[in-house]
Design goal:
Distance between the termini: 40 Å
CATH superfamily: NAD(P)-binding Rossmann-like Domain
Strand content: 5-15%
CATH topology: Rossmann fold
Strand order of the largest sheet: 3-2-1-4-5-6-7
Radius of gyration: 17 Å
Oligomer: single chain
Number of strands: 7
Order of helices and strands: HEHEHEHEHEHEHHHE
Structural class: alpha/beta
Number of domains: 1
Shape: globular
Helix content: 40-55%
Largest sheet: 7 strands, parallel
CATH architecture: 3-Layer(aba) Sandwich
Bound molecules: NADPH dihydro-nicotinamide-adenine-dinucleotide phosphate
Number of helices: 9
Length: about 260
């Protein structure tokens, strides 16, 4: 079998949190195009359903939408039950849901801090834990967390200490789970994208005007597109990455190199 065939995800079952739009949606499309059945998990049930329908229409794969808030253990557990009911197993779990709050550290309330940590770090833990339990039981699987280049650098000029700290936590959580579950055949990796043109940036009154400044700082002089994360997602989800675990893939157009 050639490498392109080996990369295919036929008969695999996957879910993507924060899959209704942006990076998660593009990952979900890629998984389905590669042959997987995919559950779109999101807070925004309507968009999740529309996205699942679009992916099913263009790929012919089975897709479902499940509403869940990743900060709630009960909702995450319910989501996992829903995926198992629909698909019978979970081969690839993308813990991707995340938010950013741009507040100067000296003005940040405990509530704001906790909100970012709850979604970006605790949400990834709850989702990975619930998926990991299923994967251990079934004899293996692949978990992919979305960290960020903000785990490696301090973005400027916008203040976002809670986001940066949460994403650094995602990388160390990823490595910890990879080691704990290495002999249980559950692989855990993360991706650390640079600036990607999604609603997280384009819908933010504060961030959108900064794009020109960021592009000037970037060696490649542009932001990334969400579809430029699709190939790594397919690779990490499937069996051709069997020796890849505990790794963080920085995909940022060399932003963090300088
Ligand atoms: P978007 O804001 O476009 O999409 C995020 C999705 O996550 C939304 O559909 C949102 O739903 C959902 N979501 C938010 N909170 C929760 C929750 N508690 N439970 C379930 N779903 C939730 O963001 P991106 O696609 O840009 O970001 C995806 C991931 O990539 C995030 O973890 C982000 O930090 C990371 N990332 C993004 C970068 C970028 O430049 N865009 C760069 C590096 C990393 P709703 O609409 O209801 O809020």
């Amino acid at each position: 079998m050639g490498i392109i065939e080996k990369l295919r995800l036929d008969n695999k079952k996957a879910f993507v949190t924060g899959g209704a739009r942006g990076i998660g949606y593009n990952i979900a499309i890629a998984l389905a195009e590669a042959g997987a059945d995919v559950a779109i998990v999101d807070m925004d049930e309507k968009t999740a359903r529309e996205s699942a329908e679009k992916i099913a229409a263009s790929t012919g794969r089975k897709t479902i939408a499940i509403r869940a808030d990743v900060t709630s253990k009960a909702e995450v557990d319910g989501m996992i039950d829903g995926v198992l009911k629909a698909f019978g197993r979970i081969d690839a779990a993308f813990c991707n849901a995340g938010i950013c709050m741009n507040i100067p550290a000296e003005e940040m309330t405990l509530e704001d801090w906790n909100k970012v940590i709850a979604i970006n770090l605790t949400g990834v833990f709850l989702t990975a834990q619930a998926a990991g339990k299923v994967m251990i039981r079934q004899g293996g699987g692949s978990i992919i967390n979305t960290a960020s280049m903000s785990a490696h650098i301090v973005n400027v000029p916008q203040p976002q200490c809670s986001y940066n700290a949460s994403k650094a936590g995602v990388i160390q959580l990823t490595k910890s789970l990879a080691v704990e579950w290495a002999l249980k055949q559950v692989r855990v990796n993360c991706i650390s994208p640079g600036y990607i043109g999604t609603d997280l940036i384009l819908n933010s009154e504060l961030l959108k005007p900064l794009i020109e400044q960021w592009n000037a700082m970037s060696p490649v002089k542009r932001m990334g597109r969400p579809e430029e994360l699709q190939a790594i997602a397919v690779y990490l989800a499937g069996d051709s990455s069997a020796f890849t675990t505990g790794s963080d893939f920085v995909i940022d157009g060399a932003f963090t190199c300088i």
